[in-house]
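Marked as duplicate of an earlier ticket. Keeping the data here for the record.
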Amino acid sequence: MKILIIEDEKLAVDKLMQTLYKVRPEAQIIGVTDSISSSTDWLNEHGNEPDIILMDIELADGQSFAIFDRVRIKCPVIFITSYDEYALKAFKVNSIDYLLKPIQQDELKRSFEKFEQIRSVFGSSENQSVNIERLVKELQRHKGDIKEYRKRFLVKHLQKLISVEVSSVSCFFYEDRVTFCKALDGKNYMLDYSLDDIENMIDPSVFFRINRGLIVSIKSIYQIQPYFGNRLAVKLIADYERDAIVSREKVNEFKTWLGK
């Protein structure tokens, strides 16, 4: 079985490959791409080669659905997603499977069993690609109706891969050219995303970017004080080693956000 992986987080790729080889030791990973652009280029050149694609929905340069607008997918796809029940129902209706991060071994096994059942029924990947295209069109038709936000991040901690729930994050910050998230218990975890990327992934009703280097959760704020220069100083439940200062141009927007 030849497999293409489309995933922009290296840690997630490593974990997925480990799980994959436990479920399907005979599997051949024939390609790993990390963006819409690189995936499109790879598929234009090798589109007939994979038997199945494991595709993350949220990539660094946008949602992977855009790939379907650029190249014809000729094999079944298992989506890797953090989407809620709305998206999951759409996958089921269109006979496309999904894996919710963090990926569990038994779930991946069931996905491949479903893939083999589909292949035995249809006999050809062409029929399945029609279902994929219908799914993409349906999701694109509704993409303005519901905005989905990231629910967790896969991070490396003490030589292990762990899943950090976004609901447990006190803040995201940028320090020494590295992006971190700080959990409510005070632990820091490195992330493979920029703050700009993260800002677009998380719920703006819960998180606010108070300055260029810091995004805070409303659940973590316990005190707000005036600060010189018409700014505000924010105290967080999880101790943040630096001053958490709301920049002057964001003060009014921050006050409005707090009152929602």
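See parent ticket for discussion. The first strand starts at residue 2 and ends at 6.
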